[in-house]
Amino acid sequence: MRPSQVALSGMPSGKTWQGWWGDLGGAKQKGIVTYTLSPYQQRAFKGVITGWILNGSTRLLAQVPYWIVPFGIAYSTYLWGKSTYEYNNSKEGHHKLAQEHAH
């Protein structure tokens, strides 16, 4: 083997099937047609709002029994915690806490 071949043995050539850094080499593909559209001509969000008004609202209303119960539990827990926090930081709450510690 010549020195140039030894140095380039890991590099791809026309006779190798395993390429360099993911380039698998191999025979050229024939008969594959690829169509593309310029990103400036695409309308990615066309019909999003009008499509949601009909389809999304129907899906949302169909799922109400599954999310309204957890939402109600979470909101009532939030209200209970908020009222308890406000009571514990009020004058009346401080007096009650002092009386409990005195006994």
UniProtKB/TrEMBL annotation:
Described purpose of this protein according to its UniProt entry: Component of the ubiquinol-cytochrome c oxidoreductase, a multisubunit transmembrane complex that is part of the mitochondrial electron transport chain which drives oxidative phosphorylation. The complex plays an important role in the uptake of multiple carbon sources present in different host niches.
Cell compartment(s), UniProt: Mitochondrion inner membrane
Protein name listed in UniProt: Cytochrome b-c1 complex subunit 8
Keyword Transmembrane recorded: yes
Major localisation: mitochondrion
Keywords: Electron transport, Membrane, Mitochondrion, Mitochondrion inner membrane, Respiratory chain, Transmembrane, Transmembrane helix, Transport
A biological process from GO: mitochondrial electron transport, ubiquinol to cytochrome c
Membrane disposition: Single-pass membrane protein
Keyword Electron transport found: yes
Protein family: Belongs to the UQCRQ/QCR8 family.
Superkingdom to which the source organism belongs: Eukaryota
Pfam families on file: UcrQ
One Gene Ontology CC term in the entry: respiratory chain complex III
Assembly and interaction partners: Component of the ubiquinol-cytochrome c oxidoreductase (cytochrome b-c1 complex, complex III, CIII), a multisubunit enzyme composed of 3 respiratory subunits cytochrome b, cytochrome c1 and Rieske protein, 2 core protein subunits, and additional low-molecular weight protein subunits. The complex exists as an obligatory dimer and forms supercomplexes (SCs) in the inner mitochondrial membrane with cytochrome c oxidase (complex IV, CIV).
